[in-house]
Amino acid sequence: MDMFNAGGPEVSIRSLKKDSMKFVLSNCDLSVANALRRVMIAEVPTMAIDMVEIESNTTVLTDEFIAHRLGMIPLTSFDVDRIQYTRDCTCTLYCPNCSVELTLHVKVNVDIDEMNDATIDKTRHVTSIDLISSDESVKPVTDDKAHPILIVKMRPGQELKLKCIAKKGVAKEHAKWSPVYGVAFEYDPYNKLRHSHYWIEESVESEWFVSPNAQEETPPDPNEPFDYNAKPEKYYMELETSGCMKPEDVVLRAMTIMQDKLGGLQIKLDDEVTGEAQRWGY
Amino acid sequence: MASSSSKHMGDLKQDVNDKMKGAQAHAEALFGGKNLADPIPTDKWKLLPAFLKVKGLVKQHIDSFNYFINVDLEKIIRANERVKSDVDPHFYLKYTGIRVGAPERPDQDAISRTYTPHECRLRDLTYAAPIFVDIEYVRGRQIVRRRGVPIGRMPIMLRSSHCVLTAKNELELARMNECPLDPGGYFVVKGVEKVILVQEQMSKNRILVDIDRKGFVQAGVTSSTMERKSKTYVGTKNGMIYLRHNSIAEDVPIVVALKAMGMQSDKEITMLVCGQESKYVDKFAPNLEECSKRGIFTQQQALDFIGSKIKAPKRSFNTTVRRPLSEEALEILATVVLAHVEVHDNNFRPKCIYIAVMARRVVMAMLRGDLIDDRDYVGNKRLELAGQLLSLLFEDLFKKFNTDLKMNIDKVLKKPNRTQEFDVYNQLLFHGDHITSGFVRAISSGNWSLKRFKMERAGVTQVLSRLSFIAALGMMTRISSQFEKTRKVSGPRALQPSQWGMLCPSDTPEGEACGLVKNLALMTHITVDDEEEPLVKLAYILGVEDVSLLTGPEIYLPDTFMVFLNGSILGITRHCKKFVAAFRRMRRAGRISEFVSIFVNDHHQAIHISCDGGRICRPLIIIENGRPRVRTEHITALSQGKMTFDDFLKRGLIEYLDVNEESDSNIALYEREIIPESTHLEIEPFTVLGAVAGLIPYPHHNQSPRNTYQCAMGKQAIGAIAYNQLNRIDTLLYLMVYPQQPMVKTKTIEMTGYDKLPAGQNATVAVMSNSGYDIEDALVLNKASVDRGYGRCQVLRKYATLLRQYPNGSYDRLADPPIQPDDPLVVQEKFDVLDADGIASVGERLKPGQVYINKQVPTNTSQDIGVNSRDPTANAYKNAPMSYKSAMPGFVDKVLMTTTENDQTLIKALIRQTRRPELGDKFSSRHGQKGVCGIIIQQEDMPFSDLGVYPDVIMNPHGFPSRMTVGKMIELLAGKAGVLRGQLQYGTAFGGSKVEDMSRILIEAGFSYSGKDYVTSGVTGEPLSAYIYFGPIYYQKLKHMVMDKMHSRSRGPRAVLTRQPTEGRSRDGGLRLGEMERDCLIGYGASMLLLERLMISSDIFEIYVCEMCGLLGYAGWCQHCKSSKGMSKMQIPYACKLLFQELQSMNVVPRLQLQNVF
């Protein structure tokens, strides 16, 4: 099948869960598929805590330590389009248009009665649940209520009071803005195209596993002659999100971003072409 | 069909079972109850944690110190118990007892006297306890007894018997701010943790035959008694044997020496040296001849001869009567020569025999070259520990204390009429802190100078390195040798076969101290001195005959063995095997100390018993009748806690062997290797390595220098230091933000606690070439990993200052931020972080140059100030602020305000930086493979596996072929298997998880057995044509970070004298264009560049030269010619001008002759 004649790229979803997704991309060039992967990792904007104003921290962890931990907490970002990048905003540092404020205040009081009772666990786990967001659409991902994300453990007498400023950003700048934890990407599981050269001692079949993606394809016929003109067709992708947005949204947004980029490029190129044309007078 | 076959099978089984039973009965009869099906105790390694539980990792230091405090102090007091007066013969002071109290806070007005080591660390105090003595003395006409008189303070070793930390549980330790994993064994002196390193020395009081500088055979003995130390040699010169000693100016022919000691018969001498062997007699005969040639036949003649050769004795002036030289000689022979062989009632016989034995050894070595002893043999070495060194120091200080006390007493007693009755107690109480300061000075400076033994040692103590937990631990097991480092002899540096199991073969530094600084292996113990008398008695009971009653031929009968105890001759026995076996039985039965060693030297026909301190020994399982005495049931009882290590010792299942006895035993490495001759079985082979080398997974697969490199690098790894790391205020503290325990650990790691205080992270490594920024061992890091906290560390630095009080009553003070006159409400940025008390508040962000302690110092610190002085200059202060100097902003982590021992206010500020890895930071795996970060790559550009796994680190495969660190590859494989199984794998030396099992796990999880993965390029999306070795490897971040090293300068400070740019990064110095660079530029001909580099950009200076006299003038005027005629202005380096002037100051006149060049 020649992909240039077949009506453009196609996607078929193999599985879709709350925070992961498997799909097959076909009828497109390798570079496009790879670009999609790269954009999903690095350029889909999400929300993440970027600034922390610590008012009181008497925990065992240092301010930077806690700030770093807070930054790594995924925030729900399905409504991220509503929020501006700070660099595009008119404000000086941050404002409601370009940021969301989250506060955290935990103080473990000293209970005289419990003090000397070793049987009571006096350790207080400060978790993502304790982060109070000012914006309902941007809050820590707490899908698993029983196991929220631990920030710090506290003991009686300690206090942690801080204000977080979550901003919109992309993972190119810092990995905390990445919506995905990893993107698996594969094509040609039978290595029909011979893009890979298996390292073997005796035989490929006995030493290398065929990837599970192979069930989507027909096994090669050993007698089939090698088609050196063949191009990769189907790309098996799997992504796992941090929970900040739905996996399908990640894909869709990534595609939009690619589109926007190409669109921007097109406009720029048009301008350039007309500009050049005027300059040279034709 | 099926049922019938199964029945048939059943029959067959029954048959086999019957046969087995028969065979078993047969075997029982044969093997004395040994069941062939007895399970082999495979987990006998469990003895090791049991050993460490009893002994601890640094038990050598603690044992030695405990022995000193509890036993040795008493002995020292006994030896120096009386202080008398030259003035009043009736007066005496006698020490009747000594004891060390509990550590006590020195502050006079302290409410609670007990204190913790951590308080000492923070407050710069010395962790010490008072020394109390019981005394008995004469006051007037009565004898007074007093108990518990303090004479000084003794620094206390942490976790020793007198330390507050001993026998405390984890909770109690936590309350005292102490880490339960900290090994102790060091001192806290003036707030600094100091370790007294183990010192390696040649053993004392043992005959050692070697070759002297001229190539002649000599037997030497270092005699060491409480009073003196001296070296005696019996050496050869041109085939003749001589006695050599420092106190005798010339070599004394051996026969003359023996005759001087009363052995006048030539026959007796010959017999005592040679026995009846003619070859020895032939070799020895010339000596007799020489003696007779000199005309020495009697004892008196011999003594006269020696007397005339004695070096001018240092005698005191009060002995007016000069004794005849022969008496002098006799005394020297009795007390100085071979001082450890005591002469009682002028009975020289034992000493004669000793010298004869030495002579015999020399004769034997002259005939057989292989009888020369090996100086580097570990059995000939003794290790000197903190206890011994402190005991030497204490004796010295105590003696000094007593002589000072005596002088004071004499001074008082000399006064003809005293107002008060003389009570020495007051003298004793207000006698100063000579002992206290002596200890503190010695430990904090490391200089052990004892006049008595002419001992002058520097660098005995070292500051405990707290760079990482393992660095501190490694320091506690370190042994430093007394050899000079400059000497180019390989012998002492070489790996000795006798080091096996005692000293770590891997852990030694590279470079000048290579092989001289060693480390103890994991399961070693160093003995302390033990009582000799019971052993002497036991030996005689077991049939040793006193050698003084025998003659030469009897001593040297073929089946007669001479018995030595700690190098001194006890006697002889004719039943060597029986004697040794009986002796060992007594030891195994616990009748004598388990650390007494006995071994047979067949070459010398000698049995050596040792109970002296400083021998390295280690436990081994005893084999009896071809089977180890430790059985499975013992190990089971051990794991259930029903037995301890000591029970194993008591029941004679294991025993300690020192190096000498070890060499006399047949030790099987594994149970399967036991042969009928085997006497012992190793507990675990991996105990040959030390605590630091024990961190390396699969070290037995690595090229050996790689393990040595890792031993050096493991100590520089950043990680967790101790549980109390956040309460410490150290000068420099490196902490890792997210340390992880290694995926592939070792048994040693678990036992040392490295898994609880790790220094590194499990990085997912792809072994591949990428980007070219990974050549020469550079690493490629994943930016996302770095963002997420990989390799992140905190650097905390202490800045301290004292608020001094001066003799004139003025004192330093803290000031609040200065007010600007123009705008009083705005604080200057420099003082922005200061709190109202003049110190930056905790949590504040410090920018470079900001002040964090705003100290002010009085301008007048010496002159007296009137109390109500109105003179404003008298009370003026000048600013002496402490400002933050670093390229990167820091945060105030902690501020401590306290007082020191002498009531001065001490302020410590701890400033913290959090650093993420950057280009040029150094990393290393545990296999001596270090590398710097060459580039940090975006996650999307990184290659990734088919599962979407992106590596944290990419390592260049060229690191492998030449380094041959196969262990690292296996670590990756085992780590990958561990990750897939969700369990930790073991890479214990000479064992650990097997590669085959690891590959199987990989296959089960759907991976290639080889550890290689299908990897796609992140840039193109195409698969890489090669398969990539991909998996977790434990990576350490080392303390060398670019931030601390990078340096550049355009303009900056210059040295005052030469006006040239300063040197070094700390002084913002210039980068030197050195001689070789200069040569290059000369060769190239770039003269203008040279001029610019060497003068214009450095120390250019404008001078005026007088063309008449050629001297330097000033501002167009020549002072010499008193004229301004012919003055030329020119530029020369300031250093050149300085040279001219310095020459002039030495009456050398440099004159410049100027010419027009163009």
TrEMBL record, chain A:
The keyword Transport appears for this protein: no
The protein's name in its UniProt record: DNA-directed RNA polymerase II subunit RPB3
Family: Belongs to the archaeal Rpo3/eukaryotic RPB3 RNA polymerase subunit family.
SUPFAM superfamilies the UniProt entry points to: Insert subdomain of RNA polymerase alpha subunit, RBP11-like subunits of RNA polymerase
Alphabetized InterPro entries for the sequence: DNA-dir_RNA_pol_30-40kDasu_CS, DNA-dir_RNA_pol_insert, DNA-dir_RNA_pol_RpoA/D/Rpb3, RBP11-like, RNAP_Rpo3/Rpb3/RPAC1, RNApol_insert_sf, Rpo3/RPB3_RNA_Pol_subunit
This protein's GO CC annotations: RNA polymerase II, core complex
Organism of provenance: Actinomortierella ambigua
A molecular function (GO) term: DNA-directed RNA polymerase activity
GO biological process: transcription by RNA polymerase II
Sorted UniProt keywords: DNA-directed RNA polymerase, Nucleus, Transcription
Compartments, record wording: Nucleus
Every DNA-directed RNA polymerase RpoA/D/Rpb3-type domain range: 20-268
Matching CDD domains: RNAP_II_RPB3
Pfam families on file: RNA_pol_A_bac, RNA_pol_L
From TrEMBL, chain B:
Keyword Chloroplast set for record: no
Domain RNA polymerase Rpb2: 203-384, 462-526, 563-624, 645-674, 1069-1154
Cited SUPFAM superfamilies: beta and beta-prime subunits of DNA dependent RNA-polymerase (SSF64484)
Biological process annotations from GO: termination of RNA polymerase III transcription
Chief site of localization: nucleus
Subcellular location: Nucleus
Protein purpose: DNA-dependent RNA polymerase catalyzes the transcription of DNA into RNA using the four ribonucleoside triphosphates as substrates. Second largest core component of RNA polymerase III which synthesizes small RNAs, such as 5S rRNA and tRNAs. Proposed to contribute to the polymerase catalytic activity and forms the polymerase active center together with the largest subunit. Pol III is composed of mobile elements and RPC2 is part of the core element with the central large cleft and probably a clamp element that moves to open and close the cleft.
Class of this enzyme: transferase
Quaternary data: Component of the RNA polymerase III (Pol III) complex consisting of 17 subunits.
Residue ranges constituting the DNA-directed RNA polymerase subunit 2 hybrid-binding domain according to the UniProt record: 692-1067
Family: Belongs to the RNA polymerase beta chain family.
Record key words, sorted: DNA-directed RNA polymerase, Metal-binding, Nucleotidyltransferase, Nucleus, Transcription, Transferase, Zinc, Zinc-finger
EC identifiers of the protein: 2.7.7.6
Name recorded for this polypeptide: DNA-directed RNA polymerase subunit beta
